[in-house]
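Final paragraph of the annual report: two paired records, presented back to back.
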Amino acid sequence: MTRGGGVVVRLKGLHKVRRKLADGSFRTHYYAWRGGPRVEGIPGTPEFIASYNATVAARKTPPKDTFTALIVGYRQSQKHLSLRQNSRREEARHLDTIVDAFGAAPLAAFDDTRMRKDIRQWHEGMITTLRKADLALGVLRKVLDFARQDGLLSLNAAAGHPQLHRANRSEIVWSPEEIEAVCAVSSPELARVILMSAHSGMARIDLCSLRWSEVDEHSIQYMRSKTGALATVPIYPPIRAVLNDAPRRGPCVFTNTRGRRAVSVRRFKKPRELRGFQISAFTICVEVLLLIFIRRACLTWRWLISWGGAKKACDRSRNDMSVGKPWRAR
């Protein structure tokens, strides 16, 4: 970030904010991290780097009797590090929110039942983002349970609080007619993914990474990207029709319109990572159509098709496998 003698020094996590002053001019402020303390000095000077290093060092080594120290210990534990990359990144965001609210509090305060009131008020204070409030409360509950298991606390003050977010998506199910209408105006590559999602209930990322080697005569056996568990999808006639229609252009079953593996847009975290890679219309459509809702069509379609062959294939897969779970509609 800073420059001196032709050398570029990148300060990790440095957050830049450009503010408009009362006289109409603009001033840029720098913070050690998003939501963190301000870094003093002029960028590129030794004072600026020293201020940044001191702030980051203080964050890494908080007093042992504070709640921030518990958060630091949790971040270094296997309970957090064993999460998949996306889950770990989302949890880290909520941990930052929790530190902003309770970081300066002594750890002993969370061993008092009166702390439940403060947690409830903090939870309800995020009334404009109910879903985010519930997720943050869940992470706080997980952290306090981690401390209780280590003997640092005797109770979990975040347990038992009701959720704020209520949503009923039971009616958001694509009918066979709606899916047929979408497939009629879609490219063959996109139509095959839509039909496979509706008939199999497989997640988008699992569809994009599905390989021909995971497809046998009676079933599809693959490792779920979300959990790492082995899953089995029986191949009944509609799924067989989709597989027979898919051309073998490589190791992956589903490819984009250019014959390459379909890539989820969520893989790209920064705009600069898109350079040199042309996102096809297929990839964007998969994101826009929200395959998660099409997957729910499985719950409706299972009453519209014959499950005799599917059940037989699933039973045969069970006999052939020593590990893994048979397919079920999600």
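The closing record of the year follows.
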Amino acid sequence: MPVHATGTALDAGLSGLIDRLVAFEQVPITHAKQRQEAIQVKIDAYASLRGTLSNLDAALTALTSAFTGGDPTEIQDALDGFVSAYNANIANMNALQRRSEQTGKTGPLIGDAVLRRIYEMLQSIVRGFTPGITFGSLSAIGITTGTGGALSADSTKLEGALAANLSGVRDLFDRLSGGGRTGIATQMLSAIDSILDVVNGTLSLRESGYQASIRSIDQRVVREEGRVTRFRQRVTTRFEALQTLLGRLQTTQQLVSSSIFQLNNLSTFLSHGPSGQSSNAAG
């Protein structure tokens, strides 16, 4: 059988075949990197949540400071700042766990248990009722919870409550009770601190777990890339040997073809003689 594949054409064909074999071996690496990217998206989402919670923490701190100062205007501004920061955080949390009805796309933390617990905890605090004080709930001073968990403030009712009983409003947010401080602001600050703590906080522990997963995937990718490199080297070596063998077979084929041609010429010469006539005809 003739050997047709030779030279550059064979090299290009083998190179393409090697690339396809290596691409198949790289599939686990591709999947690992995709998993790593998905984890990084979650880490970025937690960083976003940390940002809006930090803003809410700052607004609550400003509110308790304003109550300590006792200036009604500053307290009004601080309450507005609290409502704004709370709503920004709730909007961010909703976006992180939302599913779009139009596109079907989901937020990076949809179904995330940690996000759900934080959301429910904050909602429980703002919706809570405390008996035995003048204003037992936010709604009593004109701050209500609406669609999606956001707060809305009735400025007229809020100003009236501040003018009528500023200390009563303060007690709703921050007051002494049983030897310690309590109230909506105090409870929420304590909850946020436990979430944001850089060592043992809820978000820090979650982020640490994800970072550990990324490092583990990095190590796996390095191992897999080494394996694929060795695979390419083995396959290339074997195909180079095959190419060498085919080259030798081609050379052998050429020699055999040349020998057959020469034998045919010799046979013709012996049959017809040097004049080109057969020996029988001469007789």
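Residues 36-196 form one domain. This concludes the annual technical report; the extension proposal builds directly on these records.
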